[in-house]
Amino acid sequence: MKETTKPVSHQQASQLLHNKFIVVLGDSIQRSVYKDLVLLLQKEKYLSLKQLKSKGEMSFEQDCLVEGGCLSGMHNGTQYQEVRQFQSAHHLVRFYFVTRIYSRYMESILEDFRQGLKPDVVIINSCVWDISRYLSSWIDDYKENLHKFFKELRGVLPEEALVVWNLTMPLGERIKGGFLVPEIEHRASQLRQDVIEANFYSGTLADAYGMDVLDLHYQFRFFLQHRTKDGVHWNALAHRRITSLLLQHSAQAWGVVMPSPLTTPATAPGGWRQTPQHLLKLK
């Protein structure tokens, strides 16, 4: 299949996200989404295998571990927490590890947004842990938690904030992830189908609440050679593709033309309408 997503360069990423506060919420795949974005904001490089596999470390590419991780003890339980943050002169990126889309911990994260700096962009996914580690009949619980989360998030964020719900990427036929504790290994084969069903519910609800939906399950259906041997995670090329999709989606939402250097519609050929200044601050 011909590749249609052009990689976004360091210059493009840095300029597009100039003076932006980006928050990434989710599991280990979302952690790698955060890491690839942090790396691209600083240099034209891909994540190493060690960087992809590491979790809870004190520092990654000039970021810092704020809470949890190795500060609190490493484990694969549903109570695991990890908050990371990267800050430069013109960028702020934060990651929260979550194992459930709505919980007391998620309420505390939303309170962070309510009391503190409001994110310009929120990139979210929570699914595989939700549907495998809590209730065997997960559908009603997952739907209810999605409703609670989307409603609360909309009440906390300013109207102009961009919220992107990532649909869960395709799982392998055989999977072995850190979240697969022995008591649920027998359900591993069913998870592939459960993810498809969960994607339908979450994508439909996210759209109903006015969130943007990025269908990574669809985008990576012919990209399976870049999934790792555990059947869950993905390599550095896949993560750069995710970053490019997210940034291209953001640019489109903000009315920004992506060729380098980035231009707003006001300066692009054809005299498109002026982009509101509160949506984009370019150098």
Automatic annotation (TrEMBL):
InterPro entries: SGNH_hydro_sf. Gene3D superfamilies: SGNH hydrolase. Belongs to the PC-esterase family. This is Family with sequence similarity 113.
